Amino acid sequence: MSENATLPPIVLVHGLWMTPSSWDTWAERFRARGHEVIVPGWPGIDDREPADVRRDPSALENVSITEIVDSYDRIIRALPEAPIIMGHSFGGIFIQMLLDRGLGVAGVGVEPGQPAGVLTLPFSTLRTGLPILANPFGKAKASPLSKAHFHYTFGNDLSRADSDLEWEASAVNSVNRVFFEGVLSLPQPKSGITRVDFAKADRAPLLLISGEIDHVAPPAIQRATLQHYEAGPALVEQIEFPGRTHRIVSQEGWEEVADYALDWALEHARPVPDGATAEPAAAPPESTTAP
User: Fold this and answer.
1) How many domains does the chain have?
2) pLDDT band at 222 (very low <50, low <70, confident <90, very high)
3) CA distances, 99 to each of 69, 85, 267 (Å)
4) How many other C-beta atoms lie within 10 A of the C-beta of residue 290?
5) What phi and psi values does residue 219 have, to the nearest 5 degrees?
6) What 8-state DSSP symbol labels residue 287?
7) Measured distance CA(285)–CA(287) in Å, rounded
8) 97 burial level (CB within 10 Å; 0-12, 13-18, 19+)
9) How far apart (Å, rounded) are the C-alpha atoms in residues 218 and 123?
């Protein structure tokens, strides 16, 4: 992107167990570089504080992947300019779905989980999901995330005491339905809720960021996802940062990752014709998710 071009807005999509506040570090850094940054919450989370969500998680019950992705779709289509779209963890799956709909000038998946068809499931990933998946009767619920499990999933670079402080500041209940839908989509590349067209030619460029010691979505997942995207001509790249956990967006040294993500997106963003938004005019597809 030329130095004289208008800086695109940036939409940040948070992941499971988190709220928009998980992006505070990156959002402020990007705003300082001159970008408008939009950080919406998932339906039921919206702009609530983590402690408030933990006190009353009922609004998260039975929220679906399609409902979440459609909400971001509407936000993006309402912007006057096409944005860079970045997502962390489950949010990294959602931004792939949004790019698949033709949205955005560039996308960055930060330690993203895998869309439908990518079957790689490391043991650590299974362990992070076990408290939810072990109880199929809780699919419509919003289960709490224990401090011990948070230490494994997000705080594995921290002492238990420091991890507990991070839990207090940022953790919220799980949207269980999202977890079940994501897992059940994996063996369904053509019909799964999280499906994307890996061979899509006109998708915006996509960067997949990996953290070396991430327990939730370790680098094997992003490498496997990249192999699927190599079936198509659109630009998709992957980079791994050493020593980074699933808390990569706020872990010490987060500035290096944030700057790389934005610089890559700006360098590779697809051009937008004068007076255009790069977003298709059609409305988002209707939900096909069962109630």
Assistant:
1) 1
2) very high
3) 11, 8, 17
4) 8
5) -55, -30
6) P
7) 6
8) buried
9) 10
In tens, the pLDDT along 43-83 reads 999 999 999 999 999 999 999 999 999 999 999 999 999 99
Q: Which two tokens stand for residue 228?
A: 């699927």
Contact 183, 65 (CB under 8 A): no
CATH of the domain at 217: 3.40.50.1820
pLDDT tens for each residue of 87-116: 999 999 999 999 999 999 999 999 999 999
CA angle 17, 23, 25 (to 5 degrees): 135
Mean pLDDT of the chain: 93
State both tokens at 222.
């992003």
Residue numbers of the domain that contains 48: 10-268
Tokens standing for 260? 């790389």
Sequence-distant (≥ 6) Cβ neighbours of residue 209 within 8 angstroms: 108, 109, 110, 111, 222, 238, 239, 240, 241, 248, 257, 260, 261
Residue 279 lies in a domain: no
